[in-house]
Specification:
Distance between the termini: 25 Å
Shape: globular
CATH architecture of the largest domain: 3-Layer(aba) Sandwich
Structural class: alpha/beta
Helix content: 25-40%
CATH topology of the largest domain: Rossmann fold
Strand order of the largest sheet: 3-2-1-4-5-6-7
Order of helices and strands: EHEHEHHHEHEEHEHEHEEHHEHEEHHH
Organism: Phenylobacterium koreense
Protein name: Glycerophosphotransferase
Largest sheet: 7 strands, parallel
InterPro entries: TagF_C (IPR043148)
Length: 379
């Protein structure tokens, strides 16, 4: 008698950008290991709409979408948040998760279901970035049965401090597979040939340059005229209950040299980090996505951090670090002229962050899940 299919849930309870970090894994698992039933469970209809559009572009896969309830909680969005509270949705769906053989998530909050008594499924954490911040390296990692690392940097910071060696799989970066398939030829939002600067502040006010300097950054670059500016912050900056006021940004609507995107599709699929000539930011992991092609970068130390020697600021070795935004356009021009001084450091940092091989990262990640569930490796 044939064994019933094992059920795997790819879970999406956070903002849409996290879908890009695991959807391609789900597709590879469903295509290459038909003995698994692969569900894509989300807490927002918008998530499933995005997934459906992506699947159509990627050629489809035998996966099943699933909208989690209850409806009243799904429609509860405090403040500017685009999704319902994560912990509450997890609590409301404990029975659903208990019915799976594995739950795969790109964020760590899902570890909560284990603490709430859901013991059956294998818990898998895919990561959703490959940055340097110390915050993601924390005890909840140890709750997961399988934790993926994009490269040796993540692996060495997780193992053995938080994750046992046998529970860590170094798989590369599935998001690269996704963006290349979804948007192989990204286009700049500007028609002229001015150098394009992407300003990408973090969402955490304790780390971000936005609260102190953000508007001044945009104003200086807009007034200077030498550069085009894409303002594409981390999507959580303006998508959270305590989001900053968007009103001051209205002055840049229709500006010929300023493009504002607070979380649209192009803000999450690496369009801007691929078309920009210069990266301007603070601590977002998107610097590493930008550096897939080495280019000039400038970092804003808005909090007076003593950053040298701190591994959470490793990326600040990839370009000039400014302790003030006085004369910012000139500093950007100087960074462009002096980029050669940073290329070797950028290349070394990228290599430490991403273990990219001939086999796709998505297939390697899917294989790690399949093998843990008792299947054979991919041929």
């Amino acid at each position: 008698m044939a064994q019933p299919a094992k059920k795997v849930c790819f879970l999406y309870i956070a903002q849409t950008h996290q879908i890009l970090h695991s959807l391609s894994i789900a597709i590879e698992l469903a295509r290459n290991w038909p003995q698994f039933q692969v569900d894509l469970a989300a807490t927002s209809p918008a998530h499933l709409d995005y997934i459906e559009e992506a699947l159509a572009k990627l050629g489809g896969a035998p996966v099943r979408p699933r909208l989690l309830g209850p409806r009243w909680l799904r429609e509860f969005h405090p403040g500017e948040a685009s999704t319902p509270p994560k912990a509450a949705m997890l609590l409301a769906n404990l029975r659903v998760f208990a019915g799976y053989d594995a739950v795969v998530a790109p964020e760590r909050t899902t570890a909560l279901i284990r603490r709430l008594g859901v013991k059956r499924p294998l818990l898998v954490y895919t990561q959703h970035g490959a940055g340097d911040r110390g915050g993601p390296f924390e005890p909840r990692l140890g709750v997961f049965d399988l934790v993926m690392a994009a490269g040796p940097k993540q692996r060495d910071r997780m193992v053995p401090a938080f994750v046992r060696p046998e529970n860590c799989a170094m798989v590369g970066y599935p998001k690269f597979d996704m963006v290349e398939a979804l948007s192989p030829h990204p286009r700049s939002p500007f028609a002229d040939d001015r150098p394009v600067v992407v300003y990408n502040p973090h969402f955490d006010p304790r780390l971000s340059s936005w609260p102190r300097w953000g508007l001044e950054v945009i104003e200086q670059i807009a007034d200077d005229g030498r550069f085009n500016l894409i303002f594409a912050p981390h999507v959580r900056l303006f998508d959270q209950p305590a989001a900053p006021d968007r009103t001051p940004l209205q002055r840049f609507e229709g500006h010929p040299r300023v493009h504002v995107d607070l979380g649209g599709p192009a803000a999450i699929d690496m369009t801007y980090t691929r078309v920009a000539d210069v990266y301007l930011g603070d601590v977002s992991s998107q610097i590493y996505e930008f550096l897939r092609t080495p280019r000039p970068a400038v970092f804003l130390n808005a909090h007076g951090v003593a950053w040298r020697g701190d591994e959470s600021y490793r990326h600040w070795l990839y370009g000039p670090v400014l302790d003030s935004v006085a004369g910012l356009p000139a500093a950007i021009a100087s960074a462009i002229a002096g980029h050669g001084d940073y290329i070797a450091e950028q290349q070394a940092g990228f290599a430490e962050s991403f273990d990219l091989q001939a086999r796709s990262s998505s297939l390697r990640a899917a294989e790690a899940i399949a093998v843990r569930l008792g299947a054979r490796p991919a041929p």
